[in-house]
Amino acid sequence: MCLAIPGKIISVAGDEPTFRTGKVDFGGIAKEVSLAYIPEAAIGDYVIVHAGLALSKVDEVEAQKVFEYLKRMKELGELEEAGP
């Protein structure tokens, strides 16, 4: 299944908005994603990510709800299997 999921930005790299990336934590699994669509995103922000692109910022409470749903459905394992 392919869906957009929330994650917390734990680091940011790059100065030019088009090429900025961030390491995003998805409930214990960290992946590198593009921040080109939301150049205002900063460390500590929660973002919705799909196909390696952060699409928008999201409230932390909403992100935690989604993490809980995914854990219940055992869908977070798909991130580990997909690799970096």
Describe the structure.
The protein has two helices and five strands; from the N terminus they run βββββαα. The protein is of the alpha+beta class and 84 residues long. It has a single domain (5-82), classed as SH3 type barrels, CATH 2.30.30.140. It has a five-stranded antiparallel β-sheet, covered by helices on one side. The two termini are 17 Å apart.
Descriptive terms for the model:
84 residues, SH3 type barrels, 5-stranded antiparallel sheet, 2 helices, 5 strands
Largest sheet: 5 strands, antiparallel
Q: Report Rg.
A: 12 Å
Termini Cα gap: 17 Å
For the secondary structure, the number of strands is: 5
Which fold name corresponds to the CATH topology? SH3 type barrels
Question: Layout of SSEs?
Answer:
Layout: E1 5-13, E2 21-25, E3 30-34, E4 46-50, E5 53-58, H1 60-73, H2 77-82
Antiparallel strand pairs: 1-2, 1-4, 2-3, 4-5
Brief summary of the model shown:
The chain has helices at residues 60-73, 77-82; strands spanning 5-13, 21-25, 30-34, 46-50, 53-58. By secondary structure, the chain is of the alpha+beta class.
